[in-house]
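Trying the structure run again after the queue cleared.
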Amino acid sequence: MNRLGKYVARGAAIVVCAALTACGGSNSPDSPSTTAITTPTGGTTPSASPTTLSASVSSLALAVYAPVTNTALTGNPRTITFTNTGSAAVVDLAFSISPALPTGASTSTTCGSTLAVASSCTVTIAPGNTPSAAVGDLSATPLVLSASGSNATAVNVAVSILGYGSVYQSGYVFAIDDTTATTGSVGGTVLQESDTPSSTEWSNTATELDVLSLTDGAGNTSTIVNALGTLSGYAAPVCSQVGDGGYSDWYLPAIDELDGGTQSAFTILGPLGIPAATDGAYYWSSTEYSADPTIMADAVLVTDISTANVLSGALSKSDSLTVRCARAITTP
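Done. Tokens:
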């Protein structure tokens, strides 16, 4: 254990938030449970023959606007396109979001009260600094944006505004990529909600696998699994077998995904009160120790997760350590 070299302590709490209010939304207890999105009205109501609406996405994840917390949290507005796919104009077109938008967000729309056949219009959501569900809420559910007409069945889009510590796709959000196309969801990474059931070795063979990436845990894991076998029981293959939330793309994080990067799970989540690790436990990363990759790999000792008091360094691959997996946010 004396091979642990780098001491990292970060005591400042990280508070992140996001929202949508321009439609009168609020996260206060007295706010309405549904937010209406106003569309222009007026003119003669067309004949209400049945027709259909479609949405460009079934779900949309956005990032909070909190650049002071981390420059990655840019809160880019994101747009949903609604299209009349039927054979008659949509009349009395209306939108609502339920539950109500949290304070700080806004919405805008190019839609009117009618939508001609084969025509499209958009609703844009601009987050604020409050997420749509409380940090660490394991029972969090998305907001629902609903579009309908008097002659068209409602089409729904699940909307989530994410900050650090938000629970999304079966994990705690610790990294966000808000540079993705604004017609779809943000990217990012989530940490498994709990440790894997038992400690395990990184491997028990003195072999260099050339997995030296500090940031690409998914790539490292793929290489390790190909070399050691899916069912070998070692740390990275264990993550590749995790099925939390029905997802099959869990991996063993690279060292900077746990500690030392600009968006690292232990240092981001711990001060938020998220149970991201067990105090006193050593955690494997998927990164081999660059100075001796044949027999050693990078690991993290968690002294106090609540203050991000962690030590990262290298240990023998044959040591049995704790494992906590991660996965990239995906579009359904």
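The chain has four helices and 19 strands. Worth checking whether this holds up in the mutant runs.
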